[in-house]
UniProtKB/TrEMBL annotation:
CDD domains: GGDEF. It comes from Cohnella xylanilytica. This is GGDEF domain-containing protein. GO terms for molecular function: diguanylate cyclase activity. It holds the Pfam family GGDEF. Keywords: Membrane, Transmembrane, Transmembrane helix. Signal peptide: none annotated. It comes from the Bacteria. Residues 230-360 form the GGDEF domain. The chain crosses the membrane at residues 21-39, 45-65, 77-94, 100-116, 121-139, 151-170.
Length: 360
C-alpha cells in the first residue's frame, strides 16, 4: 500500500547518486581552474589559492558526507544538504572575483527537491541564507561590483527559485496523493473482483469449487498434461447411503455432514490439488503431478479419516464414503477421463461401499 513513506523510494540509491554528483563538482572545479591556470602570471599562488586549497576543502566535505551517509542513516538527507551548502560556499569564497558563483548557494535547495519533503526544503533554505550571510560578513567576495540593489536582486532570485521549488514539492505531493487514491481504488476493485470470481466458482455449502469451476480446471489440467506430460489423477468421492441420512435426520443434518466431509477432503489434499462439489453428495478431486498410486493412498487416508469421524448432526454416528481414482492417459480427452473415474466409483459402490477403487 502507498503511504507517506512512498517518497523515500530508492532513497539510498539517490543519495549515492548525489554523492557522485559532489565528486563530479570537485573534478569540474579542478578542470575549470586548470584552464584559468594557463592564463595566470602567478602560477605558484594560483595553484595554492585556486586549486589546492579549495579542492582540499571540497574533498574533506565530500569525505565527511560519505561518512555521514554511512554512519548517520537517519540524518543522511540533512548531511547531504549541508554538504552541498558548504561546497557552494567554498566555491564562492575561493573565487572572490567571480560574484556570480553566489548563485551556487541555490545548490542545497536543488538537492532538497530530490526528497519531496517541505522540511528538507526549509532546511536547505536556512543553509543557503546562512551561507550567504557568512560569505558577505566574513568572506572576501568582491563587493565592489555588488551594489545594494545587486545584493537585493540576488536574494530575490534565490527566494523566487525557492518559491518555485515549493511549488514543485506541493505539486509532487498532490500527484502522490492522487496516485495513492487511484492505487487504493484499484486495489479495492481488484479485491472485489477476486471475491466475486471466488463466489462464482465456490460452492457455498462445502466451500469447495463448484461444478462449473471443476470443468474449467479439468480442461486446463488436461491440456497441461497433454503438453508437458504432467501426471494427472481424478478421484470421484460419494457419501454412502446419503439419502438415508437426509430421510432419517433431515436435510439440515445432511448439509452438516456434507459440509464436514468437504472440510476433511480440503484439509487433506495439497495446495495445488482441486476439490470440487460435483453433484449432490459427490465430490471430485484433481491431483496434479501425483502418481495413480499416490492418489489412491491419499484417497484411502481421506476415506479412513471420514469413517472414523463422528458426525454430531446425526447423533455422533459416522458416515462412510466410496471413491474411484483414474489416471489420465495421453490423448484420452477429458470426457473419457471423467467417465473412467466415474466407473471406478460405481465399482466401489457395487462391491460393498466404504472403499476406494483404482481404475485399470
Amino acid at each position: 500500500m502507498l503511504d507517506d513513506q512512498s517518497s523515500d523510494y530508492n532513497q539510498l540509491r539517490w543519495n549515492r547518486l548525489l554523492l557522485r554528483g559532489f565528486w563530479f563538482v570537485l573534478i569540474l572545479s579542478i578542470g575549470v581552474e586548470s584552464v584559468y591556470f594557463t592564463m595566470t602570471d602567478r602560477p605558484e599562488y594560483f595553484v595554492w589559492a585556486f586549486i589546492v586549497r579549495p579542492s582540499a576543502l571540497i574533498l574533506a566535505i565530500i569525505l565527511l558526507a560519505e561518512a555521514g551517509v554511512r554512519f548517520l542513516p537517519k540524518q543522511h538527507d540533512y548531511v547531504l544538504i549541508s554538504a552541498s551548502a558548504l561546497i557552494a560556499s567554498v566555491l564562492t569564497v575561493s573565487n572572490p572575483e567571480e560574484p556570480y558563483l553566489i548563485f551556487t548557494l541555490f545548490f542545497p535547495v536543488m538537492i532538497s527537491i530530490f526528497y519531496f519533503k517541505l522540511t528538507h526544503l526549509l532546511f536547505a533554505l536556512l543553509n543557503g541564507f546562512v551561507s550567504l550571510a557568512a560569505i558577505f560578513a566574513f568572506g572576501e567576495v568582491n563587493c565592489a561590483s555588488l551594489t545594494p540593489g545587486s545584493f537585493v536582486g540576488i536574494v530575490s532570485i534565490l527566494i523566487l527559485f525557492s518559491i518555485v521549488a515549493v511549488g514543485i514539492l506541493l505539486r509532487g505531493r498532490e500527484l502522490r496523493l492522487h496516485l495513492k487514491s487511484s492505487y487504493e481504488s484499484n486495489q479495492e476493485l481488484l479485491l472485489r473482483t477476486i471475491m466475486m470470481d471466488k463466489l462464482a466458482k465456490t460452492d457455498a455449502l462445502t466451500e469447495t469449487y463448484n461444478h462449473m469451476a471443476f470443468h474449467e480446471y479439468l480442461e486446463r489440467l488436461v491440456e497441461q498434461s497433454e503438453s508437458s506430460g504432467m501426471p494427472l489423477q481424478l478421484a470421484m468421492l460419494d457419501i454412502d447411503n446419503f439419502k438415508s441420512v437426509n430421510e432419517g435426520y433431515g436435510h439440515r443434518a445432511g448439509d452438516a455432514v456434507l459440509r464436514d466431509v468437504g472440510s476433511v477432503v480440503r484439509s487433506m489434499v495439497g495446495v495445488h490439488d482441486i476439490v470440487a462439489r460435483y453433484g449432490g453428495e459427490e465430490l471430485a478431486v484433481l491431483f496434479a503431478d501425483m502418481t495413480a498410486e499416490e492418489a489412491y493412498e491419499r484417497m484411502e487416508e481421506i476415506r479412513g479419516t471420514i469413517h472414523a469421524r463422528p458426525q454430531p448432526a446425526i447423533g455422533g454416528e459416522s458416515v462412510t464414503v466410496s471413491a474411484g481414482v483414474a489416471s489420465y492417459s495421453p490423448g484420452q480427452g477429458k470426457e473419457a477421463f471423467f467417465e473412467k473415474a466415474e466407473a471406478a466409483l460405481n465399482e466401489a459402490k457395487r462391491h460393498g461401499k466404504n472403499r476406494t477403487v483404482l481404475a485399470r
